[in-house]
Every structure is written in C-alpha cells, then in structure tokens.
C-alpha cells in the first residue's frame, strides 16, 4: 500500500508555535514517503521558518481582508479558510487522501460534503473561543455564533489530536457537546538536526560585552504572552543584587513581530515604555523577529530562558531551550507543567515578579546551575519529545484515516 497523500490546511504560515508544529508534521510525513502539500491563506518567504521552503507551499485567498477596520478578525479568518478549502476542492486540481487542518475548523464541513468526502485530522492547539476576551455585550453577541460553529465543526473531524494533557482536559471542559470524544495527545517535537548545526549569527553589539549573564525571553509580541512579567522580574532582581552583580545582567526580549498586526506594534511600544518607567532600559534589548540561526545563537548564549505566559497550551520554546542545555523559568500552569521539571531542568513559578526574580537570582549566584540543569534538560527532551516518537504516532493516525 502506497503512503497516503496528505494535504495541510493552515491559516497563516508565518512564525509561531502552531506553524512550527505544522511544518514538523509535514516534514515527518514527507520523510515517511507521503506526498505532502501545504495550502495557506498567507505565506511570506521572507517571514517564515527556513525549512518551509523544503515543502510545496501554495497560497490562496490572501486578497481577502484579515479584519474590517480593525474588527472581526475571527470572522475574517473563518471566511479566508472557507475560501481556501473551496479553492482547493474546485480550482486547484490537488489530489489527496487525508487532510490535516488546525486552528480553524470551519473548513471541515466542506471537506466532508465534497463529492469525494475526505477524512480529516484536526489538530487542536487550544479552543479558540478561550483565546478572546468578551468585555462587551456586542462582543459576546458577535462571538456566540462563531463559538457555536467552532464546537460543531470540530466535532466533524474523523480524528482529533491535541498538544498536551492540559489541552485535552481543557477541550473536554470547553466543548461539552463533544464529551464522547477523547482526543489523543500528540506532543510537539523538535527536529534535533536543526539545532545541532553550527551557527554563525552576527549579533555583535546587541548586548554590552560586560553583560555576561544574559536572560532570554522568546515569544510573540502579544499581551497574552505576559512579557511585562519579564521586565518586572528584572526590575525586582536589581533589588536583590549588589551593583557588581547587577552590571553583569541583561535581558533580551526576542519576539515574533508582524507590522500588519496592530497588537504587535502597540505592545512593542508599550513594553519599551514600561522598561523606561522601571529605569531598566539599559539592561534590556528588544529584538523584533529573528532568523532560526539567530534564535539558536541566543539560546546558546543565555544563562536561562524566561517563559512568561500563563496557561500556555504547550509551548515549544522550553523544549528548544532545554535541548540546547538552557534551563527554563516558566509559569507553573499549562503545558510547561508537562515539559519543565521543577528544580531539575529549571523552575516553575507563580506568575509574579518576586518568584521569577528569586529563581533568576539563583542563576546569578550559582554559575554552575546552568550547566547542571542544562544537561538534565537536554536528556529529558531527547527521551520524551523526540521527532521519532512524534512521527510514529502521527503516521499511524494518518494511515488509519486513509484506509
């Protein structure tokens, strides 16, 4: 039996944890002999993961608006994905046996109602209805039909997988009408070969040379990532250190940044303002977007990674950090509870400046802590989150659906 042909549908193939997972899934299936193609509503070769160019990526529907006067992002995302799936079904001539889709489930009914219905695997990173605040009556009215549609269309998938036990539990508690469905947990993995390469990133001048103890935060410039916590923790750390120790400390906030996204632009400016208000701007570097090589360089150069979002669905950054022997200080909720081992590969803390700065102080006071925790972190990633384990489980799911 020939390996199945797999079509991936993804809203925006930019930079982020969801995009990284989709690419890893496509590359894993391609390595197994599957005929893989990715369709998306937006793809910019200058703002993407480098290995996306090793895959056939097609784009349709980018002419449709992302918002209407800054509003209606969810509705526009649904319309863009519906257009994309209709284009694939009726205009693209694409041949496929199984569809892998994620983030937006609104396209699933069209795949099931096609002349030749397709089997669908839906990867749930997290229920979208929990990612949007509803502070006004108008917003609640607007979101009600979208939330209903998300739940109903998600339930039409032939196979549902989630990225963590935390997300599986959240899925069950959120989509109550789908209580009969028990999603499989498919942990994201790392392509170790990508991180084993020698990098030659030129970041000279990014940090003053005397700042030998560098802390690093990697996350998109979005408010839900709570990057303010990193700044406040750094300010609190200053109070814990003597002048000599403080002069060695520096924080790099490296974040995914898209000029088209208003929140990215506003939050970046907001964080700069907060750093100046806390009078720590000379000890902070803001880096907007970066290459894969620069990310590896940063992770290898820092003493510890600060991972600040609460109730993160999974979080790929802690895995990347631990594989490169870099300990992680993360919030004690969500996905990091399943990746970071407290007091072994890093520290799990309440999302308060006091607890984060207390953990940061340990790395300043004990320089051997990075190496000891770093080695344990690398071992954990290799044993638990390997590409082979991810690939085996995913390939089995795809083969079951193609039969």
From TrEMBL:
Gene3D superfamilies documented for this protein: Glycogen Phosphorylase B
Reaction equation(s) it catalyzes: a beta-D-Man-(1->4)-beta-D-GlcNAc-(1->4)-alpha-D-GlcNAc-diphospho-di-trans,poly-cis-dolichol + GDP-alpha-D-mannose = an alpha-D-Man-(1->6)-beta-D-Man-(1->4)-beta-D-GlcNAc-(1->4)-alpha-D-GlcNAc-diphospho-di-trans,poly-cis-dolichol + GDP + H(+); an alpha-D-Man-(1->3)-beta-D-Man-(1->4)-beta-D-GlcNAc-(1->4)-alpha-D-GlcNAc-diphospho-di-trans,poly-cis-dolichol + GDP-alpha-D-mannose = an alpha-D-Man-(1->3)-[alpha-D-Man-(1->6)]-beta-D-Man-(1->4)-beta-D-GlcNAc-(1->4)-alpha-D-GlcNAc-diphospho-di-trans,poly-cis-dolichol + GDP + H(+); a beta-D-Man-(1->4)-beta-D-GlcNAc-(1->4)-alpha-D-GlcNAc-diphospho-di-trans,poly-cis-dolichol + GDP-alpha-D-mannose = an alpha-D-Man-(1->3)-beta-D-Man-(1->4)-beta-D-GlcNAc-(1->4)-alpha-D-GlcNAc-diphospho-di-trans,poly-cis-dolichol + GDP + H(+); an alpha-D-Man-(1->6)-beta-D-Man-(1->4)-beta-D-GlcNAc-(1->4)-alpha-D-GlcNAc-diphospho-di-trans,poly-cis-dolichol + GDP-alpha-D-mannose = an alpha-D-Man-(1->3)-[alpha-D-Man-(1->6)]-beta-D-Man-(1->4)-beta-D-GlcNAc-(1->4)-alpha-D-GlcNAc-diphospho-di-trans,poly-cis-dolichol + GDP + H(+)
Location of the Glycosyltransferase subfamily 4-like N-terminal domain: 16-175
GO MF, one annotated term: GDP-Man:Man(2)GlcNAc(2)-PP-Dol alpha-1,6-mannosyltransferase activity
Entries under InterPro entries matching the protein: ALG2, Glyco_trans_1, Glyco_trans_4-like_N
Superkingdom of source: Eukaryota
Keyword tRNA processing: no
Subcellular location per the Swiss-Prot or TrEMBL entry: Endoplasmic reticulum membrane
KW Transmembrane helix (keyword) present: yes
GO cellular component, one term: endoplasmic reticulum membrane
Residue intervals passing through the bilayer: 68-90
Recorded topology in the membrane: Single-pass membrane protein
Cross-referenced Pfam families: Glyco_transf_4 (PF13439), Glycos_transf_1 (PF00534)
Pathway annotation from the record: Protein modification; protein glycosylation
Alphabetic keyword roster: Endoplasmic reticulum, Glycosyltransferase, Membrane, Transferase, Transmembrane, Transmembrane helix
Glycosyl transferase family domain segment(s): 209-379
EC number: 2.4.1.132, 2.4.1.257
Known role: Mannosylates Man(2)GlcNAc(2)-dolichol diphosphate and Man(1)GlcNAc(2)-dolichol diphosphate to form Man(3)GlcNAc(2)-dolichol diphosphate.
Family (UniProt): Belongs to the glycosyltransferase group 1 family. Glycosyltransferase 4 subfamily.
Protein name: Alpha-1,3/1,6-mannosyltransferase ALG2
Organism (species): Microcaecilia unicolor
């Amino acid at each position: 039996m020939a390996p199945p042909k797999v079509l991936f549908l993804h809203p925006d193939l930019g930079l982020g944890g969801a995009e990284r997972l989709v690419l890893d899934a496509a590359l894993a299936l391609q390595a197994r002999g599957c005929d893989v193609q990715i369709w998306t509503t937006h793809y910019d070769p200058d703002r993407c993961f480098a290995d996306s160019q090793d895959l056939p990526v097609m784009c349709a529907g980018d002419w449709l608006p992302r918002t209407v006067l800054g509003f209606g992002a969810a509705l526009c995302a649904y319309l863009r994905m519906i257009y994309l799936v209709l284009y694939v079904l009726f205009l693209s001539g694409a041949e496929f046996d199984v569809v892998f889709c994620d983030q937006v489930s609104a396209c699933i009914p069209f795949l099931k109602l096609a002349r030749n219905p397709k089997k669908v695997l839906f990867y749930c990173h997290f229920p979208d209805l929990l990612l949007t605040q509803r502070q006004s009556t108008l917003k609640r009215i607007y979101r009600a039909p979208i939330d209903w549609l998300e739940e109903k269309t998600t339930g039409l998938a032939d196979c549902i997988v989630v990225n963590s036990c935390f997300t599986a539990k959240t899925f069950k508690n959120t989509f109550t009408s789908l209580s009969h469905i028990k999603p499989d947990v498919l942990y994201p993995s790392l392509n170790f070969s990508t991180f084993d390469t020698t990098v030659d990133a030129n970041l000279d001048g990014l940090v003053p040379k005397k700042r030998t103890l560098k802390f690093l935060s990697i996350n998109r410039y979005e408010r839900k990532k709570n990057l303010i916590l990193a700044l406040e923790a750094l300010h609190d750390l200053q109070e814990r250190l003597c002048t000599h120790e403080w002069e060695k400390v520096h924080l790099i906030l490296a974040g995914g940044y898209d000029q088209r996204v208003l929140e990215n632009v506003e939050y970046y400016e907001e964080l700069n303002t907060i750093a100046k208000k806390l009078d720590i701007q000379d000890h902070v570097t803001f880096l907007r977007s970066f290459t894969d090589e620069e990310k590896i360089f940063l992770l290898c150069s820092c003493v510890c990674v600060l991972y600040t979002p609460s109730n993160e669905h999974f979080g790929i950054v802690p895995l990347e950090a631990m594989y490169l022997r870099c300990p992680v200080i993360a919030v004690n909720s969500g996905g990091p509870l399943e990746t970071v081992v407290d007091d072994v590969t890093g520290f799990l803390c309440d999302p308060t400046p006091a607890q984060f700065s207390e953990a940061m102080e340990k790395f300043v006071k004990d320089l051997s802590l990075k190496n000891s925790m770093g080695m344990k972190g690398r071992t954990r990633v290799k044993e638990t989150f390997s590409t082979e384990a991810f690939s085996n489980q995913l390939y089995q799911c795809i083969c079951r659906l193609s039969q």
